[in-house]
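Spend some time on the protein that follows and explain the fold to me:
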Amino acid sequence: MVKVACVGDNVVDINYIDGIVNPGGNCVNVAVYCSQLGHKAAYVGVLADDVYQKVLTDSLEKQKVEYVMSPVCHGETGRCFINLIDGDRVIGDENNGGLVKSSPLAITDELVAYLKHFDLVHTSCYSYIDDQLGKIKGAGIPLLYDFSTEWDWEKVEVISETADFILFSGRDDLSEQENLSVLQKAVDSRHCCMAIITMGIKGAWVYDGSELYEKKPYFPEGGAVDTTGCGDSWISGFITTYMDLVKQMESMAASSDKHFILEENKKDVKRQAIQAGMCMGNLKARHTCRLKGAYGCGVPLSSMKR
């Protein structure tokens, strides 16, 4: 089992077409998916004191995600919307990210002490805590950072000095090779030890500083009900599988004499762990695309009393 703390953003997705409010946000989604995969998961982020907070917290409780370190503050939950405008399906932002953006989470000494009980901290560009990541790094806690599509070379250079794992979503304005080149930039001669990029039906790639791994998605031709959360599902399946296998290997190596498990054995396990992780990422993403909403915990909009 891997213990993952997801620190940062939360939102609700309001589908005015279907009349459903779905809980979500990158960090909330990853925490839920890690829990669904049988790992210990926690969410830490600023929760607003509005009607939508209960949608989020009810779903976290249902999905067995701990959120005891999440402060409740006065303000609005970030709201995204899906609606029909002049006959076109439009997706947008209703309140500029809400409280998470206007009053980001403070990484306190108390929170760092809490995070030390986890194997990995996950955060994202939508969490607005980039200037505090050094506190997590300084405590020696492995960090996974998700850029989504919000990356450029300058941002990558800064974050790759702090994060151990970096995830990118492919950008449509770049060629496949230009997208892949960001992986090498993030890893080579920097603190970051692994970079990952997902590009929808084109597949996913992982670079560990020595080898580039590629995985095509399972059955991309059809069958999807809703692709919301698929990228978050993929990284959840990948990183927990990879870290679980490596954790077991390192535990055995630590309890064995140096002649029993060799360095080349460890490297081989890590290579196989990457490949197994990519398979699990594919499976989890495939599973998620059969659900309405990021993880199927939507509630009727009509039940919201504002």
Remarks:
- The longest helix spans residues 263-288.
- The chain is about 35% helix and 20% strand.
